[in-house]
Amino acid sequence: MGGVGSGRDSYSSRGTTENYLSIDVRRLYREGMLEPGQMNRWHWSRSGKTVAELNVQACRDYLLINGHHRILLDWTGCHLGGKRPWFLCGCGKRVAILYCASQFSCRHCLGLVYQCQIEPKRDQAARRANRVRRKLGWPAGIFNPPGSKPKGMHFHTYYRLVNEYAGHLETATMGISKVTKAWRRKLTH
Q1: Regions of the chain short of the pLDDT cut 70
Q2: How far apart are CA 95 and CA 88, in angstroms?
Q3: Helix, strand, coil shares of the chain as percentages rounded to 5?
Q4: What pTM was estimated for this model as a whole?
Q5: Helix 155-188 and helix 121-136: axis angle, to 10°?
Q6: What is the Rg, in whole angstroms, of the alpha carbon atoms belonging to the chain?
């Protein structure tokens, strides 16, 4: 048996998408940066400060990054007309987001997972409970007291959300209780 934090609840050693700079073809398209001949700057910022920048030149079937990295583009038709852009990763997958490592690759090629996939069940439950609290118009924080039924919400919806919240709250508090007991045992021995 492992100690505190071991087992299924422990954080994985795999990299997460949140730890890598990414480029999103949907955002490039929305901002008009995929028009052939366009030369733009893409920048990443954290806490309001720019941490990295790229020169992005759009060509018909690819993007040229900083004058030498080529990212292939693929376009698919939409059901109601128009077209949707995709990046083509080196593995051949059509993806919306590429992550910057030594080259631009999809999360599958880099072996990345989303943070929520590796967080402990108690943290997932707390996050889900807070999502339900937002829907109910209650302040965030699972240890805050519950609020009242929002005006205009059907009672059926309200009771369904309250039951969903209670389930997530129970899972989160049971997980927190287990960790607290384990730490208490560890500290007293």
Answers
A1: 1-14, 116
A2: 6
A3: 35, 25, 35
A4: 0.59
A5: 150
A6: 23
